[in-house]
Amino acid sequence: MTQLWWGTYPPLGLGTPVGRGEGIYSQVGADTQLELEIDAPSFVVAHATLPLLYVASESPTSALHVVDVSGAPRVLASVPTGGVDACHVLLGPDAAVAYVSHYGSGDVAVVRLGEDGLPLAEAPQQLLGHTGSGPREDRQEGPHAHQAAFAPGGGHLLVADLGTDEIRRYSVGPDGLLSEPAIAATLPAGSGPRHMAVRGELIYLVCELDHQLRTLRWAPNDATADVIAEVPTTNAPQRTGDAVYDAHISVVPGNERDVLLVSVRGVDVIALFDLSPEGEARYRTSLDVGHWPRYFAVVGDLLHVGLERGHEVRAYELARVLALPPENSVGGVAALPYEAAHVVSPACVAAVPALG
Questions:
Q1: Taking the C-alpha atoms of 204, 59, 264 and 231 in order, what is their torsion angle to the nearest 10 degrees?
Q2: pLDDT tens digits along 112-171
Q3: C-beta atoms surrounding 49 within 10 Å
Q4: Which of 53, 163, 182, 340 fits a disulfide with 67 by CB distance 3.0 to 4.6 angstroms?
Q5: Full-model pTM
Q6: For residues 16 and 345, is the Cβ–Cβ distance under 8 A?
Q7: Which helix (H) or strand (E) holds 138?
């Protein structure tokens, strides 16, 4: 049986003071429990072979925590990351390095890890900043590194910067350290690139501020990416909140073709796009998943969705999701049965095999 671990925001949500009882929740089936209090653990990722979680505290004094989940969860090590509002963690090959993106300050921290999964030092080996801004004064007053991903081929690290409308790139050395900072792609002004998914030579990018899904083709010779297509992230209308905020993206293998999933807050759906063999993203429909779906993950045969403002996590049968028919009218929203459990302000989920 697989055990899920949910990272959360403070009970009153993103942007409120941290340290108000939030932390890491465990979930097995419908049973959930707050296991360990950590300041705003908004992103969690699991080690591939060890019972360890890497947890980012999204706070003014951000840190990367290594949590042992082999028994009662406990923090084995914490490294201050040097940036503000850590919001994403990417583990490198063989978990030899962790890359931490900071929304508040725009920095990317590089933390090298030993074979035991623990940090090799009490501070990052690198903290790489950026400059720039965008036209949205309320969201783009400076750089906002939102996610890091490996470029096609794995030789470069890409960083989606919501604040500067850019995808930054760094070449990755054999020790995981980064060099040669440059711009791999410049997106339309005010688009707000947020999260990426890589498939072959293509990069699928969800842009939070102009609500477009963009497809970019990677050019390995000069390590750049060009936009080759764009389509709205959903046809469905806004239903909750003060605006629409696109969130996470993932490619899921389907029976006949790969399917791209995108979560959209405010519209409160996960949108489905069929991917052609050439990689074209064709909108199919949107699934109603509840209030404010920040993050989702496919684990086994289930799609798990965290509803930040709904204080709920839902599990859908993946086969039913992938079998949804095209929307029956423009803007139509589909519905499916699900299993629900209570988690306060869920922000991210990771899965590790349950022990015993």
A1: -30
A2: 999 999 999 999 999 999 999 999 999 999 999 999 999 999 999 999 999 999 999 999
A3: 9
A4: 53
A5: 0.97
A6: no
A7: none
